[in-house]
Structure formats: C-alpha cells, structure tokens
C-alpha cells in the first residue's frame, strides 16, 4: 500500500489529510501509518514461510511505545542496544525471551537487568565483554546465552557511518578471534553458546555484499558446530534498505530468499533484525513554513522543523523528499528547505524543486519513520516533536510535544 498519497491536491495519511493533523496537534510532528507498519511486518513474516525464524524489530530505528506494542502484538521480538531500549520493550509488553541485546558497550548494570529478565541472546562483540558477561552470570548463578558477532570484512556499499562489516569497524570480531572465543567459552561456567551473529550495515541496497557476508558466516557456523558447539541460532542481522530517492533495494521477498539460500545448509533457526525496512516509509515529518528568504545565490524556505528534529540530512547528507501538504499551482523552482537551528548544516533538503510556498503552508519530509524521532535532540533548547499514529480515518497522539519545563526537568539552578 501507499500510506501517504495525494487526493484532490492534498496529502493524506491513510484516510486523514495531513492538514487536519497539523491543525489539531501542531508542528513539527512525526506521522506514522499503522496499516503500513502491519503490512510490512506481515510481508517479512510471509517471506520466511515455514523456516524457523524470529523477526526482531531493531528498536533504535523508532522507539515509540505505541510502535513497540504494535509489533509485540504481531509476534515480533526486539533487537536492543541499551538498557533504555530494554526498559521500553518491557513497558510495551514484549516477551523478554524474544529480546536480543547487541552493542559494543553494554554496561554491567544493563547486562544484569537483561539476565534478570531472561532475554533470548546477548550478541557479544569483544573478548573483554565475554569475560564480563561470564563473571556477571556466575554471580547470578545462571548461564548467559550468547552469540559472538563476527566481522566478515565485507564492504556493504553504504554510507561509511552506517557500514559495520569492515575490518576497520568497531563492531564485531574477526573470524579467527571468534573461533578462539568460542573455544575459551567452553571453560566459562557462566556462559551458554547459543548462536552466531553478523550485521554488516544499514540501508543495504546491493544484494552482493549481503550474499558474500552470509555465505562466509554460514561456513563459520558449520565449522563451529563441527567442533561440538551446540549452536541453534544464526542471527543474520538486518539492514535492508528502502527507497528514499532513486535507490532500488531488493524487495522483502528477494532479500529473505537471498538470506535463506546463503544459510540453507546450517539448519539454524534464524534471527532477522529489520528496522528501517519496517518503519522508514511508514512515517513522515510534518512541518510548517515560517519565512521565505532570497539571497543573490539561493532561495531559502525556513520551516519550524530543524536538524534537532531530523538530523539525517546533516549527519549523513541523507535525502528526504520534501513535498507540500497542499499542492499550489505555479512554476516549480529550486530552493533550500532549512530549519531554525543555528548551524549551516540545518536543512531538510537542498535544491528542492517546489512551487514557492507561502508562510503557514505545510511541508512533509518523507520516508522519515526510521532514525527520525529516535535521533531527535534538544539542541538549541528546542522541544522535541509530537508523534501521531494514523489508523484508517482516525489518528491518535502517541507522544505529546515536549514543553519548556520538560527541557529543564532534572536540572538545578
């Protein structure tokens, strides 16, 4: 489905015009389509068919409790990278036995809480982390289920900031070190080797690196099994890309088929960790035009959403289509859509082709459901946006807009 579409010149989310949301909730506001979220999750589930698997939503993509609760009701597990994300998924009624804890810097406190909750798997990323997990688990008198995250040294052909599978990356360990760590874990009374993990990056649109990496990982899995390790889980990561502009990523069915083919000989139960693929195109950022500004070299449209609300363009030079909520007649021209933050990097779009909007008009930054609100900040002491979930012809506020008192909560003059 297309969750966002034009109808008689107005942009709608499902059966709700965006202008109605702005009138009731204000701007900036993140808007999500419930139908699109459900459809994308079910599409992934169907692609795996009868193969034993668990779809673990990558919480860092968008962590609102309403979205987490929706995925939990659909049967999802969760890929977390912090104690805060663990607290969120538990608050959303997730089953801790479907939670995978990743990340290179887990604290003892975070790992302790995860052990108490009985999570499915710790994805361990270093020798010292393995030692710490063993010691902690022995204190709890349990055995911590773990997998080693391996680094296959494969170029994911994505933005360098979100590539995680190269030997220069802070993520994972080389294959040889992983074999040694698994061997050492046999003598560690607080550990239970359950699986093997790999994730080479985000916004993957080229199938070739994925196939190469997973083929290598499958061979390593079989080697480890041959040494006598009783592994049953293979975490194939996530990273499936979406279309922001001209990208042509594999379809969900194509991607899953590629994964299944690469690991078919392992017999493992698979863990798949989509984030962007589930929520990216199911959300947008709604913003209002404040001013127009013309200079000898550029035309600027100043809006009330800034890089604190959507940092991806500034951080990754990422593209988000910027489109009007109500189309105006006239000649399209080139302009920069910029925010109010005091940084030259504060823009939603450069060289955007639009009919010049009027102050008060609404614009939408599309494909903003992933790494939008979850990366929002209070830079310049700006309250973070509201969030809205649309369902058919209705919508509800799932996060109220922050207030100035919210900004100062916990501070002392």
Q: How would you summarize the topology of this molecule?
A:
Elements: E1 4-7, E2 10-13, E3 16-17, H1 18-25, E4 29-33, H2 34-48, E5 53-58, H3 65-73, E6 77-80, H4 83-91, E7 99-101, H5 108-117, E8 121-124, H6 127-140, E9 144-149, H7 175-185, E10 191-197, H8 207-226, E11 233-235, H9 252-262, E12 269-272, H10 276-279, E13 283-294, E14 299-303, H11 312-316, E15 322-324, E16 332-338, E17 347-355, E18 362-365, E19 386-391, E20 394-399, H12 404-408
Parallel strand pairs: 4-19, 5-6, 5-12, 6-7, 7-8, 8-9, 9-10, 10-11, 11-12, 14-16
Antiparallel strand pairs: 1-2, 2-3, 4-13, 13-14, 13-18, 15-18, 16-17, 19-20
Helix pairs in contact: 2-9, 5-6, 8-9
Notes on the structure:
The chain has 413 residues and is α/β, with parallel strands linked by helices. The protein folds into two domains: 158 residues, Lyase, Ornithine Decarboxylase, Chain A, domain 1, CATH 2.40.37.10; 180 residues, TIM Barrel. Helices cover 29% and strands 25% of the residues. The strands form three sheets. Strands 4, 13, 14, 15, 16, 17, 18, 19 and 20 form a nine-stranded mixed sheet that branches. Strands 5-6-7-8-9-10-11-12 form an eight-stranded parallel beta barrel, surrounded by six helices. A three-stranded antiparallel sheet has the order 1-2-3. Strand 19 and strand 20 form a beta hairpin. Helix 2 runs parallel beside helix 9, helix 5 crosses helix 6 and helix 8 runs parallel beside helix 9. The longest helix has 20 residues. The chain is elongated and about 70 Å long. It starts with a strand and ends in a 5-residue tail after the last helix.
């Amino acid at each position: 489905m297309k969750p966002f579409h034009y109808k008689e010149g107005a942009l709608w989310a499902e059966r709700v015009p965006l202008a109605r949301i702005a009138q009731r909730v204000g701007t900036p506001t993140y808007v999500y389509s419930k139908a699109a979220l459900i459809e994308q999750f079910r599409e992934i589930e169907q692609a795996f068919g009868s193969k034993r698997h668990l779809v673990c939503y990558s919480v860092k993509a968008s962590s609102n409790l309403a979205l987490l609760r929706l995925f939990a009701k659909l049967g999802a597990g969760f890929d977390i990278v912090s104690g805060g994300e663990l607290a969120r998924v538990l608050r959303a009624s997730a089953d801790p036995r479907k939670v995978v804890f990743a990340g290179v810097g887990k604290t003892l406190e975070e790992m302790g809480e995860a052990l108490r909750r009985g999570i499915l798997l710790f994805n361990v990323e270093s020798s010292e982390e393995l030692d710490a997990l063993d010691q902690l688990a022995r204190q709890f008198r349990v055995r911590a289920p773990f997998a080693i995250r391996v680094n296959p040294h494969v170029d994911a052909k994505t933005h360098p900031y979100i590539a995680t599978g190269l030997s220069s990356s802070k993520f994972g360990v080389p294959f040889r070190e992983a074999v040694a760590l698994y061997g050492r874990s046999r003598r560690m009374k607080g550990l239970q080797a359950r699986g093997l993990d790999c994730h080479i990056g985000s916004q993957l649109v080229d199938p070739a690196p994925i196939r190469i990496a997973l083929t290598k990982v499958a061979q390593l899995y079989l080697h480890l099994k041959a040494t006598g390790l009783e592994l049953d889980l293979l975490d194939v990561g996530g990273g499936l890309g979406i279309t922001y502009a001209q990208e042509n990523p594999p379809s969900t069915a194509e991607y899953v088929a590629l994964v299944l083919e690469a690991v078919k000989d392992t017999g493992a139960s698979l863990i798949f960790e989509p984030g962007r693929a589930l929520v990216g195109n199911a959300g947008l950022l709604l913003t209002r035009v404040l001013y127009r500004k013309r200079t000898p070299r550029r035309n600027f449209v100043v809006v009330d959403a800034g890089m604190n609300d959507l940092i991806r363009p500034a951080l990754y030079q990422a593209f988000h289509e910027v489109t009007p909520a109500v189309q105006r007649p006239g000649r399209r021209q080139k302009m920069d859509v910029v925010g109010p933050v005091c940084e030259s990097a504060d823009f939603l779009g450069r060289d955007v082709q639009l009919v010049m909007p009027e102050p008060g008009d609404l614009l939408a930054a599309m494909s903003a459901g992933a790494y939008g609100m979850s990366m929002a900040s209070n830079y310049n002491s700006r309250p973070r946006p509201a969030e809205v979930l649309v369902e058919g012809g209705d919508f509800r506020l799932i996060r109220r807009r922050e207030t100035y008192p919210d900004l100062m909560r916990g501070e002392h003059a």
